[in-house]
Predict the 3D structure of the following.
Amino acid sequence: MLELKHISFDVEDGGQGREIIRDISLTIPDGRLVVVTGPNGGGKSTLARLIMGIERPTSGAIVLNGEDITNLSITERARRGIGFAFQQPVRFKGLTVLDLLRLAAGRELNPAEACEYLAAVGLCARDYINREVNASLSGGELKRVEIATVLARGTALSLFDEPEAGIDLWSFQNLIEVFEGMRKNIRDSAIMIISHQERILNIADEIVMLADGHVEKQGPKDEILPGLIGTAAAVAACRKAI
Amino acid sequence: MKKLDSIQKRLLEEIADLHTIPEGAYNIRSNSESAGRRSTANIEIIPKTDVAGLDIRIKAGTRRESVHIPVVMTQSGLKELVYNDFYIGEGADVVIIAGCGIDNCGSADSEHDGIHRFYVGKNARVKYIEKHYGSGDGAGKRILNPGTEVYQEEGSTVEMEMAQIKGVDDTERTTTAELAAGAKLVVRERLMTHGNQRAISTYVVNLNGADSSADVVSRSVARDNSYQRFDAKIIGNAPCNGHTECDSIIMDNGRILAVPGLEANDVDAALLHEAAIGKIAGEQLTKLMTLGLTEQEAEEQIISGFLK
């Protein structure tokens, strides 16, 4: 379970402080898939980066399974079970898909095990396992490899920052299936997805609507989603994904 | 074969992955003497009489055979200049594994200057692998100055893999190549310098025949206070394809000078160069840290992948 307690985050902007996140308190219980939505610039990605430790809050506390992790490094948070799929995955010259999956799993993986993770994100393992994670991969391929690294980690809290961005429509269907599969096997872990996509919102247990750096609405999907349909916070796949 | 001590064995393992006597033809040079040599029916290794070194003659049509010619030096203060000439017969297809390891625990500089000349016959294929390695904590430097000259006849292919990852204090590497029609040269160089090391690598490739091609790619990492210069020139004298690339990671107070050079003397010469130098991207470190690696572990993974 992850608890955010009165989290605020300011940045320097032209010599003046600007609030990106304003006093957010939020709980993500185990066994739940939570989708964070809201307009662009509302602070969604920043919130995920604060949880991972890539950014540090100006004030407030982050608590994972009862432990205050506010001052822990990215590495320490990762080792305590937080996983993160970047919106724009980074490329590595020389590291292969298999190398990255092994690092993610934290152990030697045999090709058959690595293939399972790749198959789950709709990549034919034979074609990809020895490919370098470099500019030869398309944006969509890279994105799926990124998601596979989070699957390989098997973390207690998995964060996905706009997983649909840069993925074509056909792959988008696969992506939904990946998250449905994760939802089925969620047990005592939790998933937080940042997305505008109606179909991703539709598989959520809970929806958090973020705007102007604070929580505007929060609750079970059935309560929140009807009010969002047709707004920028819940876009049909055909409008956003192309 | 003469007995090698444990340091010599370790050096052999580093530069040639050799644990025992290699299969096929070989010559092991240890502290300026031959520690063992074998010719085969198709590959003859003959010591030169006028200067130090070997003539290696590979018969036309020799297929899938290998030659090992590693050099190890463990005696401080040793300096040597060695000439090895390879004559590769028409249509042969062979692997040549060279390399030099120096362990210097003494105070005098140890230096191995190896001049390798390759005369590659028509349609022959050569894969050449060369690793350099230095160890030992003496104040004496470990110096390696390899000179490589490649003469390729029509339709021949030469693939060179050259690596120097650790421990060599000073290197000046010069590689020249002359390619006839349809010949192809592929070079992959990997280099890491640390401490106060200095490494200079110079290539001059002449594409003389129609449809000849060269692809010279260097990946390097300069750490601590080390200095590297990569100077690659491709000259297109006929309709040909040439590509040179220098891709470097710079760390600490390292310095790198990349000097890509292209010269086209034929209107159908297609030549391209790329050079990039930069530090490890912050997002790369962050990504690996989100997988549970420390910053230092992440750095090691990125470098070892880059130099793989």
Notes: Strands of chain A lie at 2-13, 16-28, 33-37, 59-64, 67-68, 82-85, 157-161, 190-194, 206-211, 214-220. Chain A has a mean pLDDT of 89. Chain A touches chain B through 25 residues (CB under 8 Å). The longest strand of chain A covers residues 16-28.
